């Protein structure tokens, strides 16, 4: 048993009391989302109603999950917290660092050769601190979580945006940055703005070629990539209950593509079946005792308009297969209308590759339904025109699918390739032959994201998202505009044949099976385990404590860069090739702000070094100030730090000696990340003061020694000609956050408190 039954038991034990308290303060029937949120308040029973979209609330998540690319920095930070064990059950999953090229065995070996240092680090740090580790090849984080850890009514955070997948099993599961995961693993609260609620009523029943994927492709078309922002999407209705649990996971998974905080479904029979099939009958027994609390109140679902901020209704009986794309997941087109639209937009119709997998669609049901299409085509003498690539979601799914003959079915297509149970092409880990030529082409896949360059690095690859069964059908036809409901194919004898509708199994009729699931349980007592990080490693670096504030005003600080316009976390800490250094703060700091536009001259990664007068790269200039013992300051525009929640964007400036980031406005998560790393994240009291900042300015804080909640700070700007101006700066630090600043970082403070 890899899941923590005691923890689940405790969560359910407190449900009745917590829900009763929530009913009292909210004073009306409750949605499922509200029940889960109010049942997980950090302070216990609710004493006040929180305003949706406004109130910031402290929660106590039940679990943490991390994937290998983000876990490195999260765990390096956790090691700084002075804890001997994580405070909540946590897991790390090696799934992002495995490239798809030839096939599972060779690719996995290649990844082990290239990244064993990172895998060994993750394995040892997990072992030491009580974290479950899923080894390379064990599967994709969200499939593994659904199969082993997700439980109805639970709350989880994960360092990956598709953590939301666990909503398929009735959780509120949210993707966060590593810093949030570290807080929760260290025993602190997790803060979230009380989400708004979008209700999606599903009537009717899926049939024929239509799959759960088409529900979310349709929803994405309605809500667009921003429509779910700050909201939980709650699905309900007879259509929801008639759908498999993994199908629900697919829908929740792609909630990330509409910007939703998360998505969820009420506890039902499909979840019972899935929990039982995945060896968790004990969880079913516990959940059944509080079943009424694990779904929304009947009145809420009867009159959703009264209780949700927005309601959408979809009749599944009328829903048809969709293809979404290219370049954005919300460009939804019913398959029947695709040909006309593709021709009008000059999208390439022929495809060379069709891919099934990713955390979105790699379940047993998905593989069985796709295999039924392949089997049908083979029996009718049709050969595939495109290469079909498959990444099973987990070793358990792969092993069972192989036992039940589906893998052999795929292999009946000579060109099929079975890749590792890992993310692979979904995260650009795909060595696609010829991609470097950057030719205009189309691919179809069952993944979630289809941004330019994401799968193969070629900006001219038009990627379309569809259900696994549609991907299989398109692979066979070799054309995107193939509509299996109406179109025929020519077989080897020159006859016109039609593909049968997909059939499959929600769950394996003979049960799941696996030889080695790839799980490493942590040591009972990890105190003797040494986490091995080589001093000369270029990929991993143990963190050193950031120094505490010396209690004095910061003076003589030089302007490092005044960023103009959009400055997202990608501009501050680029991804792509820099992914390699996610576990090495000093090396990854060489990408600090290299994408930011310098307000003086408009160049990127070029600023004046005030010590020499010469122009230099941003990271090198920051290092020069740091080496000279001179603090530096970054100035930014509106919504500075929007985008991902990666903490590297705050840790890098901290590491390179930047003391304060002063902007017109912040993206909230980045602002919090700066605070956590012991930085000053400040805003101009008067936005127009941004214009007062000159390229060769020096700054003195006048009253930092009186740093207090709600009190403005005063900054003296000394221009190169000796003239001075004084401006006011706002901040949002509370008492606790000021303590973080004083201690040097939130982790330093935790460590101090532990001593
Ligand atoms: Fe992996 Fe792609 Fe999901 S990168 S976690 S399979 S979105």
UniProtKB/TrEMBL annotation:
Alphabetic keyword roster: Iron, Iron-sulfur, Lyase, Metal-binding, Transit peptide, Tricarboxylic acid cycle
Domain Aconitase A/isopropylmalate dehydratase small subunit swivel: 559-687
UniProt pathway annotation: Carbohydrate metabolism; tricarboxylic acid cycle; isocitrate from oxaloacetate: step 2/2
Catalytic activity field: citrate = D-threo-isocitrate
Cofactor field: [4Fe-4S] cluster
Pfam families the record matches: Aconitase, Aconitase_C
Name by which UniProt lists this protein: Aconitate hydratase A
Organism: Taishania pollutisoli
Organism lineage string: Bacteria, Pseudomonadati, Bacteroidota, Flavobacteriia, Flavobacteriales
């Amino acid at each position: 048993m890899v899941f923590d039954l005691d923890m689940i038991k405790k969560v359910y034990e407190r449900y009745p009391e917590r829900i009763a308290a929530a009913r009292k303060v909210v004073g009306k029937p409750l949605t499922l989302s509200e029940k889960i949120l109010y049942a997980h308040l950090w302070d216990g029973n609710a004493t006040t109603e929180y305003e949706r979209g406004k109130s910031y609330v402290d929660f106590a998540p039940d679990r943490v999950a991390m994937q290998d690319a983000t876990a490195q920095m999260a765990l390096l930070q956790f090691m700084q917290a002075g804890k001997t064990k994580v405070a909540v059950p946590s897991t790390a999953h090696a799934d992002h660092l495995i490239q798809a090229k030839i096939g599972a065995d060779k690719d996995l070996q290649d990844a082990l050769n290239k990244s064993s240092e990172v895998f060994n680090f993750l394995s040892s740090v997990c072992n030491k601190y009580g974290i479950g580790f899923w080894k390379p090849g064990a599967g994709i984080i969200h499939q593994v979580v659904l199969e082993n850890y997700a439980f109805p009514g639970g709350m989880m955070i994960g360092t990956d945006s598709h953590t939301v997948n666990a909503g398929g099993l009735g959780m509120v599961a949210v993707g966060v940055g590593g810093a949030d995961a570290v807080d929760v693993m260290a025993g602190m609260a997790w803060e979230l703005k009380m989400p708004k609620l979008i209700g999606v009523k599903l009537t009717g029943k899926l049939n024929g070629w239509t799959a759960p994927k088409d529900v979310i492709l349709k929803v994405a078309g309605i809500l667009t990539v921003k429509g779910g922002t700050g909201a939980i999407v709650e699905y309900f209705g007879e259509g929801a209950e008639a759908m498999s649990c993994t199908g629900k996971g697919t829908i929740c998974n792609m909630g990330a593509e509409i910007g939703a905080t998360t998505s969820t479904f009420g506890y039902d029979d499909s979840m019972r079946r899935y929990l039982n099939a995945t060896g968790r009958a004990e969880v079913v027994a516990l959940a059944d005792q509080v079943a009424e609390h694990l779904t929304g109140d009947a009145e809420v679902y009867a009159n959703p308009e009264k209780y949700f901020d927005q309601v959408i209704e979809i009749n599944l009986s009328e829903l048809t297969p969709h293809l979404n794309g290219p370049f954005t997941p919300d460009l939804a087109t019913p398959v029947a209308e695709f040909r006309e639209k593709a021709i009008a937009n000059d999208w390439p119709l022929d495809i060379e590759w069709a891919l099934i997998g990713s955390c979105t669609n790699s379940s047993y049901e998905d593989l069985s339904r796709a295999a039924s299409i392949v089997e049908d085509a083979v029996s009718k003498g049709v050969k595939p025109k495109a290469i079909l690539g498959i990444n099973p979601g987990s070793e358990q799914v792969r092993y069972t699918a192989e036992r039940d003959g589906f893998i052999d079915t795929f292999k009946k297509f000579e060109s099929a390739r079975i890749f590792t149970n890992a993310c692979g092409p979904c995260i650009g880990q795909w060595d696609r032959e010829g991609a470097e030529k950057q030719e205009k082409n189309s691919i179809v896949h069952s993944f979630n994201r289809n941004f330019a360059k994401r799968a193969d690095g070629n900006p001219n690859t038009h990627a379309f998202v569809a259900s696994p069964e549609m991907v299989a059908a398109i692979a066979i036809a070799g054309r995107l505009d193939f509509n299996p409901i109406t179109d025929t194919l020519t077989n080897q004898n020159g006859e016109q044949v039609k593909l049968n509708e997909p059939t499959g199994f929600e769950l394996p009729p003979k049960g799941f099976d696996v030889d080695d699931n790839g799980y490493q349980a942590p040591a009972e007592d990890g105190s003797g385990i040494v986490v091995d990080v080589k001093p000369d490693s270029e990929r991993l670096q143990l963190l050193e404590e950031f120094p505490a504030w010396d209690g004095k005003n910061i003076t003589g600080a030089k302007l490092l860069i005044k960023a103009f316009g959009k400055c997202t976390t990608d501009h501050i800490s680029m991804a792509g090739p820099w992914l390699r250094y996610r576990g090495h703060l000093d090396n990854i700091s060489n990408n600090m702000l290299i994408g930011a536009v310098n307000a003086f001259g408009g160049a990127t990664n070029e600023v004046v070094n005030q010590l020499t007068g010469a122009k230099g790269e941003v990271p090198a200039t920051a290092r020069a100030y740091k080496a000279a013992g001179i603090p530096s300051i970054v100035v930014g525009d509106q919504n500075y730090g929007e985008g991902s929640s990666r903490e590297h964007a705050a840790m890098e400036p901290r590491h390179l000696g930047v003391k304060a980031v002063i902007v017109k406005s912040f993206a909230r998560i980045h602002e919090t990340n700066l605070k956590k790393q012991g930085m000053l994240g400040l805003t101009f009291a008067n936005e127009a003061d941004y214009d007062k900042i000159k390229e060769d300015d020096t700054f003195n804080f006048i009253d930092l020694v009186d740093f207090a909640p709600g009190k403005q700070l005063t900054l003296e700007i000394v221009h190169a000609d000796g003239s001075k101006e004084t401006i006011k700066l706002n901040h949002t630090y509370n008492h606790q956050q000021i303590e973080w600043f004083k201690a040097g970082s939130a982790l330093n403070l935790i460590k101090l408190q532990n001593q």
